[in-house]
Amino acid sequence: MPLIPDLGIAASVALVVFFIVLGLLVLFIEDIDLKIVLGLLFILLGLTVALLAMGEAGVALIALAAIAALVMDQVFEHFAGV
After folding, report:
1. Domain limits of the chain?
2. Which helix (DSSP H) or strand (DSSP E) does residue 19 occupy?
3. What is the mean pLDDT of the chain?
């Protein structure tokens, strides 16, 4: 039985995770080394694929939201010229 069986609830939790992680990255962490970002990106991407393979689509969606927050933080830094 999946941990979060309803994908609607998982999507709303993923949205909250996305905005919390993005907010913490933008407000408190000014600059992250690209090697650390790529490492976290591949770890979370591997976790997402593993969770999807086990049938945990809801938790995988939440991990995907954390990946999106990391990517958006890098995009914001690029556009801001920081």
Report:
1. 30-82
2. helix 7-28
3. 88
